[in-house]
Amino acid sequence: MAKKRKTTKKPSTSKTQRLWTWIRPVFYFGLGAFVGLFVPWYAYINHVTNTIIHEQWEVPSAVFARPLELFDGQNISSAALTFELDLLGYRQVSGQPQVGQYQKQGNRFRIHSKGFRFADQRSPAQAIELSIHQGVVSAIKPQMARLEPAVIGHFFSSAFENRNPIALAAIPTTLVQGIQAVEDREFKHHSGVDWWGVMRAAVKNVMAGKIVQGGSTLTQQLVKNKLSYDQQTWLRKLHEAMAAIQLARKLSKKDILQMYFNEVFFGQDGKVAIHGVVEAAGFYFAKPVSQLNIHEQALLVGILKGPSWYNPIRNPDRALNRRNVVLNVWHETGIINQQTWQQAKKQPLGLSQHRQLKTDHDDYMAVVKKQIKSQFSDRDLKQKGLRIFTHLDPFIQRKTNQTARRTRHWLDQNMESAIVVSDAQSGALLALSGSQSAHSGFNRALLARRPIGSLIKPFVYLAGLDSLSGFDLDDTLKDEPVSVTLDDGSTWDPKNWDGSSSGRISAFDALVRSRNQATVDLGLKMGLPALVDYLQQLGLSINRANHPSLFLGAIELTPFEVQHLFSLLSSQGQISQINAIMHVTDANNRILTRSRPQPAPKLNLNDLKTINQALHQVTTTGTAQKITNKYQLPRRFHGKTGTTNGGRDSWFSGYDQHILATVWVGRDDNQPTPYSGGSGALVLWANLMRNLE
Fold first, then answer.
1. Of 161, 272, 275, 495, which has the highest C-beta tally within 10 A?
2. What confidence category does residue 35 fall into, taking pLDDT thresholds of 50, 70 and 90?
3. Is the pLDDT of residue 53 over 90?
4. What does residue 496 show for φ and ψ, rounded to 5 degrees?
5. Is residue 127 domain-shared with residue 206, that is, in the same domain?
6. Per-residue pLDDT, 216
């Protein structure tokens, strides 16, 4: 009898189906959540890293003063050279100067320059020896040398970030290795995140109940600087970690280090953020990165732990301790040897004092902006790292500012002033101050249009020499009461400044003594249209051409425009344009544009010499004789005072063969003052010239 086969009872399909029914929505929900959240997040992180890699830094254009050229016979005082060296961050030493140092013994200087990449050539760091005798360079070795120009301003974007990119190969090896030793010892081995470091930091953070240690790598710090997170949160740290991993996959270690050194934040200079090691070296030490000493490199690395907390300017003791901690790490890791470590720890912070000598250049920068806007767009100026070289002389600018600040001390408490200084022969703008106050916000040198009074007279006499056949300054004029009938039937009766008349007087004396009635007599002889035509040839725009008061300066000009006008006289008709900009180069040092002098109007050289003879006499026996009698300025000067009704405007323009300066003094509310050109503006002008000796 055959055995019956046992049958296995199949499990119920309904139970499996019920289980799957429960699991499936959970599975799909999780999958959907993963795809919906992680994939966009990953895409976002990918986008962030691509943005970091391809981002073009906004590098502000830097504006430089003129480079100081040193050669035999150059006019420069010992005080001016000392000021410039200190401004550039050179340190005075008693022994043999090293790079960035100078020794001064009386009027003998030994300088070791830092070198600079000029537009025409790279000037290497070199030893310079020279003497200064009576304001002139002598016995100089080498025969010709140039010091680097000082930075006087920038064209910043709205972020006010200052940086100047540098290649990794140009950064000292100790600095490259040292940043890794202090901030990220596993940099060469991890893939953007040091997970052991993260775990150590996590334990400390959990124990503290908040984030007290980041465990960030250099790559993560780079991401943090790029993303500019305001708060430390777990989500932020997670973003940084993911972005750092992706960035490490897309860039080499060298690329990351180079980007880090150019991006990292080193502190604030007022409202300007200092980014990158180049700007940090310049701000704290006034040096190129390549010339930083070991202790200086260590200080910069130390600052990174907390740019505000370890700010060496505000917190020197804290910064010094942090620097020494960095030096200890470098010694422990073998980056520096025992001797270097011991020597470096003995050094003071060694911060440059050049920041304390910085002069307000805002008024001068206004001219630069005005003259350069026609050549470059705002975007180019704020982002492309152009280098704009100007004619500004730092010493003359400082003395000009100091003179303007003394306006109310020398005159009265209601007076304002404006001063413009240029090279008498080339028209190069050397200095400019638009107010007696350091922070007025109104640049009177460029913006204040005021009647110029008797400043017009040299040009009235020039017009007479040009338009009246046979006329010269030996001819006589009538310095007598005169009444001119105007088109509306009224009369104009000009008076002399002293209320008297001199009768018959030579044209030469009339100009020297600034006689109004004699000048009107000359003007009537040549006619108002002839004067208008002549002034228009000089570049002036005449709006009151129908009134004879034009003979006496009833025309409104800014001090800057007056400077243009008098440059015709100081340069013997060679130039008629005041230029602030020398040339502009791109980030690769290619010259993009040079300033080209505007062609001057054709003027008779003999007539100019005749007028200049009279203007020299003005400074010895005429309305500006205080230059010789009271202030006893030794050089041969020429000049002209100007005063408007009620002393509302006090002017003086004066020059020698080197410097032309125009000074205006008055009140912003246009009220009368007790000052004439000789008792107001001339006071500032003479003191400026004396301080430039």
1. 275
2. low
3. no
4. -80, 160
5. no
6. 81
Which CATH number goes with the domain that contains 105? 3.30.2060.10
Rounded to whole angstroms, the Cα distance separating 532 from 549 reads 12
Q: Residues 653-670, buried b or exposed e (16+ Cβ, 10 A)?
A: bbbbeebbbbbbbbeeee
Q: What DSSP string describes 363-402?
A: HHHHHHHHHHTTTS-HHHHHHB--EEEE---HHHHHHHHH
**Residue 122 DSSP SS3:** strand
pLDDT tens figures, 464-500: 999 999 999 999 999 999 999 888 889 999 999 888 9
Q: Which amino acid appears at position 293 of this protein? A: N
Asked whether the beta carbons of 277 and 291 are under 8 A apart, the reply is no
Q: In angstroms, what is the C-alpha Rg of the chain? A: 36
Sheet holding 581-585: strands in order across?
Answer: 151-155, 61-64, 387-390, 581-585, 591-594
Question: Do residue 135 and residue 227 come from a single domain?
Answer: no
**What distances in angstroms separate CA 519 from CA 114, 454, 458, 459, 482, one per listed residue?**
57, 10, 10, 11, 11
> Does residue 475 lie in a domain region?
yes
Residue at 548: amino acid letter: P
Please give the tally of structural domains in the chain. Answer: 3
According to DSSP, the residues that pair with 422 across neighbouring strands are 429, 660
Cis peptide leading into residue 142 (ω within 30°): yes
Report yes or no on 445 lying in a domain.
no
Q: CB within 8 A of 552, min separation 6: which ones?
A: 453, 454, 456, 457, 494, 516, 519, 520
220 and 347 inside one domain: yes
How far apart CA 393 and CA 56 sit, in angstroms, is: 34
Within 8 A by CB and 6+ apart from 648, the residues are 450, 451, 666, 667, 670, 671, 672, 673
Residues in the chain: 693
Q: Which residues contact 589 (CB under 8 A, 6 or more apart)?
A: 117, 119, 387
- 467 shares a domain with 318: no
DSSP string spanning 212-270? ------HHHHHHHHHHT-SS--HHHHHHHHHHHHHHHHHS-HHHHHHHHHHH-EEEEET
CB 86 within 8 A of CB 358: no
Q: Which two tokens stand for residue 542?
A: 């005449």
CA distance 633 to 622: 15
Task: Count Cα atoms within 13 angstroms, Cβ side, for 153.
Answer: 19
- DSSP of 132-200, one letter per residue? EETTEEEEEESSEEEEPPPEEEEE--TT-EE-----GGGS-HHHHHHHHHHH-TTTTTSSS--HHHHHH
Strands (DSSP E) found in 491-550: 491-492, 503-506
Residues 91 and 212 in one domain: no
| 568 within a domain of the structure (yes/no) | no
Question: Do 253 and 311 have their domain in common?
Answer: yes
3-class DSSP state of 524: helix
* Last residue in a domain, options 553, 578, 599: 553
Domain enclosing residue 351, as ranges: 160-356
Residue 1: the pLDDT is 47
Would you state the structure tokens that stand for residue 79, as one six-digit string?
């005080």
Q: Cα separation of 67 and 149, whole Å?
A: 4
Taking the C-alpha atoms of residue 64 and residue 368, their distance in angstroms, rounded to an integer, is: 11
Report how far residue 127's alpha carbon sits from residue 118's, in angstroms, rounded to the nearest whole number.
18
Of 120, 149, 178, the position where a domain reaches its end is 149
Mean pLDDT of 56-67: 89
Separation of alpha carbons 324 and 200, rounded Å: 25
> Would you say 119 and 589 are in contact if contact means Cβ atoms under 8 Å apart?
yes
